[in-house]
Amino acid sequence: MLQEMIKIRRFFHTIPEPAWLEFQTTVELINRLKDMGYAVEYGKSIHGGPRMGFPTKETINAHKDHIKINADFDISQILEGYTGAIVKLDTGQPGPTIGLRFDIDANDLQENSNPGHRPVDEGFSSTNPKAMHGCAHDGHMTIGLFVAKWLMDNRKNLKGQYVIAFQPAEEGARGALSMINTQHFNNIDYFLAMHLGINLPSGKIGVGSVGIFATSKIDVELNGRSAHAGVNPEDGNNALLAASSAILSLHTLPQISKGMSRLNVGVAQGGTGRNVVPGNASFKMEVRGEIDEIVEYLIKRTNEVVEGAAKQYGVDFEVKEVGAGQAIKVHDEVFYKEIDDLLKSKGYDTVRNNNFNASEDVTYFMNKVSEDGGKSIHLLIGSDLKAGHHNDKFDFNEEDMLVAYNVITSTIEYLQDK
């Protein structure tokens, strides 16, 4: 089984597609799930919106022109950015409803092309420019496919119902909200989520992740008036200075006593020439917080800071949220211990409450399940990494995909009897 998992993971590694552009990836997933016997749901039927941080038409068309897709079914909605897939299985036997989610998108990252990087050496590096599976989602998809096959193959020996989401647009925290704003994940009794690597080595299993930060991804645009920088600079309204002032002020904000907080401006652009007062500027930023309240505070202050800088320099502004994720609202320590005890009894070396120290929009699924009275858990499957997540040399220990598969199927076997 491991060799087949490696083969499929490496195939997906060659076709990385960033958020909302997972056209070829979605079609491949649908074809493989159909071959297992699933009636696959896809397109508009699995999205309730909003699709945050959606790419431009130019970006979509450029990607469509670059890839080749073979499909014997209507993919028009997929090519409109309604990516991802959902499958369901009803065993016909009384039992719980169990949900699972696996993310499918790639990073906006140019993969390293030098010898010594295993995908280069063994011929499975990215074929798409400025796109790379640098966060193990190629592995996550593979694990999800094998779990789906196990469920289908063992359906006569299982109880209850199962719902599996292959979620687009996790990077930038953009896709989960659109998926849960449907009826597909109502009344889930148990929900399982997982991630390879992060900060655990191979052989370790993190049970009940903590420190999954709430987050907001924000784009800011400032529009002033350009002018000749020598002849009549007083006629200009300098949008670049407004952006610079806002950026410096924003980085003084993360001083909050209620918990950990983060703020980062990662991209800033503006101006057209050295002798032109810049009439336009923009920047991209994010905020994170240990609890939702911290992020709400940082969003409010971001708007105030940008508005103040805009007034100072006489420019117009727009602040737009293009991605979001919640903190986990319910940490069910009794349930975490139950799963921890189960995995320990299976011989796994577990770590309770491992700190994630990043954001993950799977929390929308988890919080939805909790609100409906169900139980959810996030697992970390330790994996030795060649470089950190979101690095152009990222790679993981492929043997850990089989570990993840065994952890998930063992947990399902236990939960379906409850």
Describe this structure in words.
With 418 residues, the chain is of the alpha/beta class. The chain folds into 2 domains: 2-212 and 327-415, Aminopeptidase, CATH 3.40.630.10; 214-325, 2-Layer Sandwich (Alpha-Beta Plaits). It is built from 11 helices and 18 strands. The chain has helices at 2-14, 23-36, 57-66, 118-121, 137-153, 176-180, 239-250, 292-313, 333-345, 363-371, 399-415; strands spanning 41-42, 85-90, 97-103, 161-167, 190-196, 204-207, 210-212, 214-223, 227-228, 261-270, 276-277, 280-289, 316-325, 349-352, 355-358, 375-381, 385-387, 395-396. The strands form 5 sheets. The protein has an 8-stranded mixed beta sheet with strand order 1-2-4-3-5-16-6-14. Strand 17 and strand 18 form a beta hairpin. Helix 1 (2-14) packs across helix 5 (137-153), helix 2 runs parallel beside helix 5 and helix 5 packs across helix 11. The longest helix has 22 residues, at 292-313. It is globular, with a radius of gyration of 23 Å. The model has no long low-confidence stretch (mean pLDDT 97).
Quick tags:
single chain; 418 residues; alpha/beta; Aminopeptidase; Alpha-Beta Plaits; 2 domains; four-stranded antiparallel sheet; 11 helices
Write the layout of secondary structure elements.
Blueprint: H1 2-14, H2 23-36, E1 41-42, H3 57-66, E2 85-90, E3 97-103, H4 118-121, H5 137-153, E4 161-167, H6 176-180, E5 190-196, E6 204-207, E7 210-212, E8 214-223, E9 227-228, H7 239-250, E10 261-270, E11 276-277, E12 280-289, H8 292-313, E13 316-325, H9 333-345, E14 349-352, E15 355-358, H10 363-371, E16 375-381, E17 385-387, E18 395-396, H11 399-415
